[in-house]
């Protein structure tokens, strides 16, 4: 089944602080850090947004906190961060956590929103 059709049930009118189409464009030019917070099995099943860093929710605090020795270098650059999950619920919680760490962060919803906005996938 074509990926876009698989996510056709999604409503494009969802509320977000950065339109997903804008996140897709900024990801292509490297202006944002894109984080997939889903579990590894979810990513293995569906793939992830091209260029996204996979950080499961349970590891987010350790891997994204600039004061942690485990913080990823991409998250120390000061770029805006966009997070997504399967539907947008977990990424909403992740947004709050990342904001408290000092990141400028946007919840762009679920992987299906990314696909519907023309975002490419990778396995």
Task: Please characterize this protein's 3D structure.
- By secondary structure, the protein is α/β, with parallel strands linked by helices.
- It has a single domain, classed as 3-Layer(aba) Sandwich (Oxidized Rhodanese, domain 1), CATH 3.40.250.10.
- Helix content is 36%, strand content 17%.
- The chain has 6 helices and 6 strands.
- The chain has a 4-stranded parallel sheet with strand order 3-1-4-5, with helices on both faces. The protein has a two-stranded antiparallel sheet with strand order 2-6.
- Strand 4, helix 5 and strand 5 form a beta-alpha-beta unit.
- The longest helix has 12 residues.
- The radius of gyration is 13 Å and the shape is globular.
- It starts with a helix and ends with a strand.
Brief account:
This protein has 123 residues and is an alpha/beta fold. The chain has six helices and six strands, in the order ααβαββαβαβαβ. The longest helix is centred in the last third of the chain and has 12 residues, at 89-100.
């Amino acid at each position: 089944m074509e990926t876009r059709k698989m996510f056709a049930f999604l409503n494009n009118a969802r509320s977000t602080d950065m339109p997903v189409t804008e996140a897709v464009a900024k990801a292509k030019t490297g202006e944002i850090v894109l984080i997939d917070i889903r579990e590894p099995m979810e990513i293995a099943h569906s793939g992830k947004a091209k260029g996204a860093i996979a950080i499961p929710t349970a590891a987010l605090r350790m891997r994204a906190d600039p004061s942690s020795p485990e913080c990823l270098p991409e998250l120390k650059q000061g770029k805006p961060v966009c997070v997504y999950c399967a539907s947008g619920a977990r990424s909403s919680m992740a947004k709050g956590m990342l904001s408290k760490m000092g990141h400028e962060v946007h919840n762009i919803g679920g992987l299906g929103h990314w696909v519907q906005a023309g975002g490419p996938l990778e396995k």
